[in-house]
User: What shape does this take?
Amino acid sequence: MNVLLCLSHSIEEYDQLRLLHSLGYGVASIGGYIDPAHPHDDKRPALPEIPMVAAVKAAVDGLGTPDNLGVAQSRLPDPILEWLGDDGAIVYHHHLYRLFGQWRHVEDWLRGSSRRRVIWRTVGQSLRNNELEAAPFRDRGLEIVRYSPKERSIPGYAGEDALIRFYKDPADWEGWMGDEPVVLNIAQHDATPHARDQWLNWGFWEAATDGLPAVFAGPHTEKIGGLGTLSLDEMQTWLRRARCYLYTGTQPASYTLGLIEAMMAGIPVVSIGPGSMWFPDLFEGHEIVGNWYDDPAKARESLRTLLEVPHIAAKIGAEQHAHALALFGRDTIAAQWREFLG
Assistant: This one.
């Protein structure tokens, strides 16, 4: 079986390519990893072990437009559909206009075999408008794989065919030591922290870490005193060495890959509560973490305890790590994708 990824998130693209390839599927991406050995995005490493599909690369390159990838996702070239065969699957992220704008074209392909599939894989970007947009296509062959059970509370919810959370391979992340007594956060910011406050709850971070040793990292954070973009190895090193992690959530997603990576590393996490969220019913980061606060002053006291009492930090980190393995571990998620795709 061949699987075509039309994704909008390079980290998820990297993870899905690795997972599906390891499960024995033929896999290609119309995205930053169209040539896995030479990715367009440096957030994750190259994947030279995954063969580039020449037919897919040639069809995209042959478009000759300034944005070949976007154009190809918006109107899948026939040679790519031919590569998928009679039992292929097409997977899209949240730029659904690219899929639905060409639905007649895709539907013609679907009708060619009962084993062909078109899937919307949600990644935390869905709200009412996305659900309403997808709903009419449910009886025309669209399948939906959810990333969180919280999505069921979205107004206009369009249903699901499977719930498969994000995953992380524990071999990549484990090894927390906590020998650096600082509070860590990793996220993407703009030129000023308050420009991202509505998306990342920067005010909560400032209040909860006031007077505590703290460090933050991620794209553009160097503009506001942070570490800036880290390589994967550097980020994993910080997650293993920092004493604790403060998760401040993202809007409107109920959790992100960053939270999962922290928990998989074993670093103890304190989470913001749902009271700061635009859509509290969609937020489950606090439920997954367990150690959460709506009041930043109380979060600060919890962080202070983790900084000052290493054995408590180790105990909480180990408990959260075990929970992360059960929810997001590679083996768990691999089995779910295998069952869904067949």
User: Anything to note?
Assistant: The mean pLDDT is 94. The CA atoms of residues 250 and 256 lie 7 Å apart.
